Amino acid sequence: MDFAARRDMLTSVLKVGPGNGADLIIQSSNNMQFYVHSRNLEFAAGAFPGGSATEITFQPGEVVHLTETADVLEILFEFAYPRRHPTMEDLSFQHLLRVTDAAEKYDFYMAAPMCQISLRFVLHPFCGHF
Q1: pTM metric for this prediction
Q2: What is the C-alpha separation between 23 and 35, in angstroms, rounded?
Q3: Cβ-contact 75, 99 below 8 angstroms
Q4: Residue 31 to residues 25, 46, 67, 69: CA-CA distances in angstroms?
Q5: pLDDT tens digit string along 101-127?
Q6: H/E segment holding residue 35
Q7: Which domains can be identified in the chain, with CATH numbers?
Q8: What CA–CA distance (Å, rounded) separates 92 from 122?
């Protein structure tokens, strides 16, 4: 699934945008804004806020600027909401590496292990299925 299709799905399913009741605006390095619920991020990732080395602090309604691109952040934010988590099988190797780095950087509890498993399968496809 390409970036535009994922963005449309994320916007329609999670209602990520103004007016969805979100209290946090996160802006990607390529200037896309995500309107997310800080409470969801608090439970999904150690950095929002948390004890990780990359703790993110913010005030309600403030725009938080992150160094990752929108195509990386949109995948991570899917792990912050109570729904089926995305698969990584359609991602290119480079995209998967960027998502993995961000998942570990922001301590996304469910995304980091999913990325590691996906990387293991990409690097060693004949080692069996999980």
Answers
A1: 0.72
A2: 7
A3: yes
A4: 11, 24, 10, 8
A5: 998 898 888 787 777 777 777 776 665
A6: strand 33-36
A7: 3-123 (3.30.710.10)
A8: 10
Q: Which two tokens stand for residue 2?
A: 């390409």
Give the model confidence (pLDDT) of 35-47 as tens digits. Answer: 988 888 888 888 7
Cα separation of the two ends of the chain: 22
Name the phi and psi angles at 50, rounded to 5: -175, -165
Which of 68, 58, 47, 67 is CA-nearest to residue 25? 58
Burial of 6 (0-12, 13-18, 19+ CB in 10 A): middle
* Spatial strand order in the sheet of 24-27: 33-36, 24-27, 63-65
